[in-house]
Amino acid sequence: MAATLERAEQLDTDDELAVYRDRFVPIMDPGVVAYLDGNSLGRPLLATAERLQHLVRHEWGTRLIRSWEEGWLTLPERIGDEIGRVAVGATPGQVIVADSTTVCLYKAIRAALALRPGRTEIITDTSNFPTDRFIVDGIADQFGLTVNRIDSIDEIAEAVGDNTAVVTLSHVDYRSAAIADMAAITRITHDRGALVVWDLCHSAGVLPVQLDANDVDFAVGCTYKFLNAGPGAPAFLYVNSRHHNDFRQPITGWMGADDIFAMADEFKPALGIRRALSGTPSIAAMAGVEMGIALLAEARIGRVRAKAQGLGRWVIELADVWLAPLGFVVASPRSDEQRGGHVLLRHPDAERISRELIDNGVIIDFRNPDGIRIGLSPLTTSYVEVWHAMNVVKSQYSRTPS
């Protein structure tokens, strides 16, 4: 079939998730042709603005400090349970909304290491997100551990050994969008006696994740991408219930204590997942998480996944027809089952082209060294929007000297 605007319009007509676009704050900038960066920062929900207004005027403005005992104190667990139920396949009591992804990752890796005393190796891959690699390096340097950096997650079976304590990887590659085999990698890791920490930042909210079913030990994920919770919204942390009696996280604060109002002389951890908390949670920031996961529950992750696959196919088809002759290469898996919620295009001039695309209203990400990342947020991205964006790429690059 032809890669026409009419076809894009028909795809949108057939899209059962199209109605959800009206739930988001409209983009008022007339210069924006397409917003294809929702996998870095999702668009704001209208419901979030309403929720924040109620929070400020009633819960904070009227009930004041009483709101802590009227619901705020349990928000991290209640929203965490919804994230577990709706997005990551975890039964109640195993997910909690906590700090930034970086802090949650630090807590998870340190907790996993403590559960494997005597083992001195952490495994990660060289293409993992910088935060993940930096955290691993920092922990290893602090405690005199060895970091085994593999070049591909396909090397896991050979890399994990008797000295491996923790394997930490991203479920979806932040550049290529390749999906790691969570079940197989977790099984291999456990067979060698090690524990696994998964980063779900580019999978939570755009594809089904099954943490319990895959017997994952620890996982972290952000909420400001496909969950549309807002810039700097808090991350979440998953700890498998089989570790709840033993895991200790390193940043012990009063919110993780068994009795936060005892003002005790010594720290005694709370039972279960709540011991993963440290300081006072940001209630205002969690409002966006609450609304984002509620919308995902309504839309249903299976339908979101199906649309993400369809949008990805559409980008790849347009790239093959329009952009391959201009030197662009599709660097994401072509198989729907192996690709996450974005598509990476490679080009030697990607950095310059990315700047020019943004200047011309196509909001995308440049990823070093030569990647243009097309983010496909299923609840806000339309097929027509993608068509116009790819048409700008074709038209602009055709007339720009290489």
How does this model look, in words?
By secondary structure, the protein is α/β, with parallel strands linked by helices. The chain has 2 domains: 5-44 and 301-399, Aspartate Aminotransferase, domain 1, CATH 3.90.1150.10; 71-299, 3-Layer(aba) Sandwich (Aspartate Aminotransferase, domain 2), CATH 3.40.640. It is 37% helix and 13% strand. It has helices at 5-14, 46-60, 75-88, 101-114, 130-143, 156-159, 182-191, 283-299, 301-323, 350-359, 383-399, and strands at 34-35, 95-97, 121-125, 146-150, 164-170, 195-199, 218-221, 236-239, 329-330, 342-346, 362-363, 365-367, 371-375. A 7-stranded mixed sheet has the order 2-8-7-6-5-3-4, with helices on both faces. A 4-stranded antiparallel sheet has the order 9-10-13-12, covered by helices on one side. Strand 3 (121-125), helix 5 (130-143) and strand 4 (146-150) form a beta-alpha-beta unit. The two termini are 30 Å apart. The mean pLDDT is 97.
> If helices are DSSP runs of H or I spanning 4 or more residues, what is the number of helices?
11
Give the CATH superfamily of the largest domain. Answer: Type I PLP-dependent aspartate aminotransferase-like (Major domain)
CATH class of the largest domain: Alpha Beta
Secondary-structure element order, N to C: HEHHEHEHEHEHEEEHHEEHEEEH
Instruction: Calculate the mean pLDDT score and round it.
Output: 97
- Let me know the largest β-sheet: 7 strands, mixed
Quickly give the structural class: alpha/beta
Order of strands across the main sheet: 2-8-7-6-5-3-4
Poorly predicted tracts of residues: none
Percent of residues in beta strands? 5-15%
CATH architectural designation of the largest domain:
3-Layer(aba) Sandwich
**Rg:** 22 Å
What is the share of helical residues? 25-40%
Could you tell me the number of beta strands?
A: 13
Shape: globular
Quote the distance from N terminus to C terminus. Answer: 30 Å
CATH fold category name of the largest domain: Aspartate Aminotransferase, domain 2
How many domains? The number is 2
Protein name: Kynureninase
GO molecular function: kynureninase activity
Function: Catalyzes the cleavage of L-kynurenine (L-Kyn) and L-3-hydroxykynurenine (L-3OHKyn) into anthranilic acid (AA) and 3-hydroxyanthranilic acid (3-OHAA), respectively.
Catalytic activity: 3-hydroxy-L-kynurenine + H2O = 3-hydroxyanthranilate + L-alanine + H(+); L-kynurenine + H2O = anthranilate + L-alanine + H(+)
